[in-house]
Design goal:
It comes from Acidocella aromatica. A hairpin with a 3-residue loop joins β2 and β3. α2 runs antiparallel to α3. This protein is α+β, with helices and mostly antiparallel strands. The chain is elongated and about 80 Å long. The relative contact order is 0.15. It has two domains: 91 residues, PH-domain like (Roll); 51 residues.
């Protein structure tokens, strides 16, 4: 039994499931790759008939490289980050594209979500305590990070002063 399943459930004050955005569905990705294959086959056949047969190998390598890059992009979309605030702690679960899971527990008493501004770049979103600093939401844009930081800080405020 792993530590993730062994922890007893407590009421949630906040939960966010962060996933990277991908604009192509699986079907659309296959359609794009199919269109590329048809176009490549047309150009390759034309070049072969014109006597430029070395182009055949280069077009095949180009198509294989494009398919590999699309596959790596789709695989990277399986990564997730889950942030939960319950009675006991802030639980940050990071799941890699291969499915490997790492869980960090942060005491919420002095925790706060902060944006670390960087000139000319998207700020870092961190959960900070006096003893720890953990970056979250790396795949988010600036506006999404600002919204998430505000939501986490509101949830922490509700956790600190529950309504009786």
């Amino acid at each position: 039994m792993d530590a993730y399943a062994a922890k007893p459930a407590s009421p949630l004050f906040f939960e966010a499931d962060l996933r990277p955005h991908r604009s192509l569905s699986r079907g659309a990705l296959l359609a794009v790759l199919g269109g590329m294959a048809v176009g490549s086959l047309y150009v390759t056949t034309l070049m072969y008939l014109l006597g430029a047969w070395p182009v055949v190998g280069f077009n095949g390598v180009d198509l294989a490289l494009a398919a590999l890059l699309f596959w790596l992009n789709a695989r990277a979309a399986r990564a997730r980050e889950i942030i939960r605030l319950n009675n006991d702690d802030i639980e940050i679960t990071h799941i890699t594209p291969s499915g490997r899971r790492s869980v960090v527990f942060i005491p919420p008493g002095w925790a706060r979500a902060e944006l670390e501004e960087r000139p000319g770049a998207v700020p870092h979103l961190v959960i900070r305590t006096p003893a720890a600093r953990r970056e979250i939401g790396r795949q988010l844009g600036e506006a999404q990070k600002r919204d998430l930081a505000a939501a986490i800080n509101r949830a922490l405020a509700r956790w600190r002063s529950p309504q009786l």
